[in-house]
Amino acid sequence: MTNRPRTSPSGFGELPGLMALMTGDEKHGPAATSTLDSLWVLYDRVLRVTPETAEAQDRDRFLLSKGHGPMAYYAVLAAKGFLDPAVLPSFGAYDSPLGHHPDRLLIPGVEISSGSLGHGLPLAVGTALGLRAQGLHDPAVWVLVGDAEFDEGSNHEAVAFAGAYGLDRLHALVIDNSSATHGWHGGIAARFAAEGWSAETVDGRDHEALYRAFTTEHPDRPRVVVARVESKNS
Amino acid sequence: MDTMRDRFIDITSGLLDEDPRLAVVLADISAAGFQKAAERHPDRLINVGIREQLLIGAAAGLAFTGMRPIAHTFASFLVERPFEQVKLDLGHQGVGAVLVSAAGSYDWPAGGRTHMAPGDVALLDTLADWTVHVPGHPDEAEQLLRHAVADGDRKVYVRLSAHQNEQAVRVEPGRFTVVRQGSRGAVVAVGPMLDAVLAATENLDVTVLYAATVRPFDGAALRAATERRADVVLVEPYLAGTSANEAHEALADRPHRVLALGVPRAEHRQYGSIPEHLAAYGLDAHGLRERIGAFLW
């Protein structure tokens, strides 16, 4: 394994430089940068997980469901010491741990392998159920979904169930860059709210707004934060 | 006699009391039978409603946290409908689960094609490292279920059916059992097909092997049974030919013949009963006798 943890964590300002080390998936460039601010705020200020606790049973879990354009994710993992920045230039190479979609068996701290859309929310539901069944009521489970990914019906199975079940340790982060082909009339947050979720839509580039939305209390119900960013096609 | 599905509900309810790592995920099917277990273990008996993609995804998520999940519904909705979840959420994520199906190929013929999944085992054959148990009796179902739950974090499919044999066979998980010795080839009877195979081969000089586990396929037992004559008949309660490749692989170094019998691929657009369907597929004792006799003599 070449991805040794770094010793000194980096700041947000270093992320563009880290992302620039990864080439070959420019098609998914907009998908990558849309998540950058939300990922940073989560890993920097919200998630209780470090490279040292990446296997701890009581860690917070972050599941990247929208695996397309993982450059921002890899950059944040590198900045936070989960990943050696020296492996970033190998992005997509035959024996690199860093694929154009992440693989949980190849990268420490990556909770799920993704790429096919619509798998993360059901996996997050099961993770939250598993923690609850073991009496672990503290760890939070976060899953990042894209607005176009939300087209997949499997998400809607998970949203309806989690709301009805009151899975209060489950958190969805929807990155909305208006890339869904038919859009979401009335907004995505309304879909979650209708199923009983605590829901809020914020500016996905505003770190303080994101932080407040991520840390808002939501007793007895799951929480969704829809982070709106500039349109993919703008 | 109880059914395999009754036994599954009984045994699994008891295992929930004993094993804190076990969790059961349902998609409405069999929820009534698990009612009492759900009251005792509300956090480990989870009914997600009629949501089969979530059924598999949630089972995999439970496995992420160290639980041993069982996911259960009819075979059509457990393997076929959420097949990509089976492929990715379990296989690609590198976690295990026990999938327990009911209704299989032809259990509810009056229900028609929507509730028939003769291709389930063939579909799992496109994936790596699945154990597939096909019990032929509730006692075997119990034994194989207990084995599956305790089988580490492996991916195990247990295929339960309303079609069953009169008596249980003493089986060893993963091994074929020699039920009858003969010299003119071997007939492999899978799960519920045993009674009909025994009746069909009553006066034939053939070895009858019984398979309640088909993956891994016990190629060594097949080789041993075909030393004198390498002619094999497979009789499977799902898609005909599903195990043909396994038989060919086991006998690859010697000239051999394989006749693969099972449920035909073409949709059989008739309702009726299990015996009527078995007869129509040529899988009753009479149909088997004709085809096995013609092939081995």
From TrEMBL, chain A:
Annotated InterPro entries: THDP-binding, Transketolase_N
A Pfam family recorded for this sequence: Transketolase_N
Presence of the UniProt keyword ATP-binding in the record: no
Family matches, as SUPFAM superfamilies: Thiamin diphosphate-binding fold (THDP-binding)
Transketolase N-terminal domain location: 28-225
Assigned keywords, A-Z: Thiamine pyrophosphate
Cofactors, names only: thiamine diphosphate
Domain of life: Bacteria
UniProt keyword annotation of Transcription present: no
Protein family per UniProt: Belongs to the transketolase family.
Name recorded for this polypeptide: Transketolase
Automatic annotation (TrEMBL), chain B:
Signal sequence extent: none
Ranges where the Transketolase-like pyrimidine-binding domain occurs: 2-168
InterPro entries xrefs: PDH/Transketolase, THDP-binding, Transketo_C/PFOR_II, Transketolase-like_Pyr-bd, Transketolase_C
A Pfam entry, by short name: Transketolase_C
Domain of life: Bacteria
UniProt-listed PANTHER family: PYRUVATE DEHYDROGENASE E1 COMPONENT (PTHR43825), TRANSKETOLASE-LIKE PYRIMIDINE-BINDING DOMAIN-CONTAINING PROTEIN (PTHR43825:SF1)
Protein name as it appears in the record: Transketolase family protein
Native species: Kitasatospora misakiensis
Organism classification: Bacteria, Bacillati, Actinomycetota, Actinomycetes, Kitasatosporales
